[in-house]
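Review form for a predicted model. The reviewer records the input and the model, then writes brief findings.
Reviewer: anonymous (R2)
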Amino acid sequence: MGDLVTTRLVLHPMTVGEAGRVVAGAPGDGDRWAPGYPTDGDVSAAGRFLSTCASTGDPRPFGNYEIRRREDGLAIGGIGFHGPPDEEGGVTIGYGLIPSVRGRGYASEALRELLLFARARGVTRVKGDADLDNVASQRVMTAAGMRPAGQDDRVRYFEATWTDEAAWTDETAGTGRS
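Model under review:
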């Protein structure tokens, strides 16, 4: 499976070896990590990916992706699925960036691409969530085309759903790209 490419980013599907290096915090030859990568969230996601690979096999294309900047190839965060689609066609996503690159629209750009990717593979619903005080993450999901779907005393939930056979387009995702 190849990389997903956006205007400014490359979403690189992680391999078991790459995930192992992220968990160990030790880049290998050829790994290009920006200062601050991996974050605790990246390590946790890579660990979940490795656990899934060990128990049920490689979930790709519904695994983890390293977010890399196209301009310099540096890994600046991660995005991915918490597993393959469930019996109703739903998936859950998560994402994060190193602090030094937040606020530049990278997370929304990466999430829009992952939503398009999921929809093209028959996913009918993508879910995500953010702590109530994490307004930036809530804005990322909204900017990417997800809608609020409820909240509890700690978390606001978001989702993107498709109920017909029409393809989800960049226009639907609010990018204005064609």
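Findings: The helical segments are 16-24, 40-56, 106-120, 135-143.
Further findings: Residues 80 and 175 are 20 Å apart (CA to CA).
Recommendation: see findings above.
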